[in-house]
Amino acid sequence: MKLNIALLPGDGVGPEVIQQAAKTLDAIAEKYKHTFVYKYANIGAIAIEETGNPLPETTLKTCADADAILFGAIGELKYDNDPNAQVRPEQGLLELRKSLGLFANIRPLTTYDALIDQSNLKAHVIKDVDFVIYRELTSGIYFGDKELSENGNEATDTCKYTIDEIDRIAHLAFKSALIRRKKLTLVDKSNILETSRLWRKRVIEVSKNYPTVNLDFLLVDNAAMQLILNPKQFDVILTENMFGDILSDEASVISGSIGLLASASIGANNAMFEPVHGSYPEAKGKNIANPLAAVLSAAMLLDHFELHEEADAIRAAVEKSIELNITTPDLNSTNHFSTTNVGNFLSDFILDDENTFYNKNNIDLGQSTII
Ligand code: IPM
Ligand code: MN
Question: Which fold has domain 120-255?
Answer without folding.
Answer: Isopropylmalate Dehydrogenase (3.40.718)
